[in-house]
Amino acid sequence: MLGVVGVYLGVIGAFLGGISLLRPLSFLAIRTRVQAALILALSFIVVVISGLLPARETRVAEERTLLDQFAPTYQFREFHSIKIAAPKEQVYRALNSVTADEIAFFRTLTWLRRFGRPGPESILNPPPHVPLLEVATKTSFLLLAEDPDREIVLGTLAAAPPGWRLSGMPTPEAFKSRFVTANTPGFASATINFRIEDSGPAACLLTTETRVYATDIWTRRRFAFYWRLIYPGSALIRRMWLKAIARRVKLQTAGHEAPQDHLPGIFSASG
Fold first, then answer.
1. Where do the structural domains in the chain lie, given as residue ranges?
2. Beta partners for 78?
3. Given 32, 74, 222, 230, which residue has the most CB atoms within 10 angstroms?
């Protein structure tokens, strides 16, 4: 988290310094272009140092979840949760049915993530009215494991050596052996789960966790900068995703279908 804060403080400083090169922002005590240039240079240094801060490696002491089996070691992690007043079966149905159009700001943030390029169908550019998990598993994600009404785990490659191509059909076993337990340089695997646990009478806790494992120090350093840059947007998407699932559960309980294309955002469903 320190790296994320440092990167964004540096980005903000660089933005203000860049503006002050054109017209010094005296209300921020930036009165000359020399001061602005110094702030810009120092901010750039802060961004670089923060982006390259070492990422501590974590190992799971005891496997408790399906995610633990496929991502027992990781350097980057993101975790979010929401409590839903509904049985696990209903929450699991909503999890597998929710679409991108139900997730607030999803299309806005993914449009920015792909720099406005249309690109092929993927989780960053999903078609309307198609469950997001279905889009993920049809494109760049592999279904690693599923325990109905309890947990689902997906995996993908976040980084690979230049020119590398996958040979053969991807399988959960191959994913784990090649990119999680092996030490072949140049790879970073990303594993994400959704897990449902009982949380009192007629209620459950829905969580989602993302873990990334880089196989060598250089890949870890390169990925660290990218992770710290995209983390705020990624965290917002995850939180809004959980809220969309909870909203769909509520609508299904009331006997209504989840509405489409109704949530706030800058861009249309066509991306």
1. 2-51, 58-253
2. 210
3. 74
pLDDT values of the chain reduced to their tens digit, one per residue, 271 residues: 778 888 888 889 898 989 999 988 888 888 898 999 999 999 989 988 888 888 899 999 999 999 999 999 999 999 999 999 999 999 999 999 999 999 999 999 988 888 888 888 999 999 999 999 999 999 989 999 999 999 999 999 888 888 877 776 788 888 877 766 667 788 899 999 999 999 888 899 999 999 999 999 999 988 998 999 899 999 999 999 999 999 999 988 776 555 544 443 333 333 3
Residues 71 and 184 sit within 8 Å (Cβ to Cβ): no
Q: What is the pTM assigned to this prediction?
A: 0.85
Cα 187 from chain centroid (whole Å): 18
The CATH architecture annotation of domain 58-253 reads 2-Layer Sandwich (3.30)
Please name which of 223, 242, 244, 114 lies closest in space to residue 179, comparing C-alpha atoms: 223
Residue type, position 16, single letter: L
Task: State the Cα–Cα distance between residues 173 and 53, nearest whole angstrom.
Answer: 32
**Nearest residue to 41 (alpha-carbon basis) of 71, 64, 70, 18:** 18
Q: Rounded to a whole number, what is the distance in angstroms from the first to the last CA of the chain? A: 30
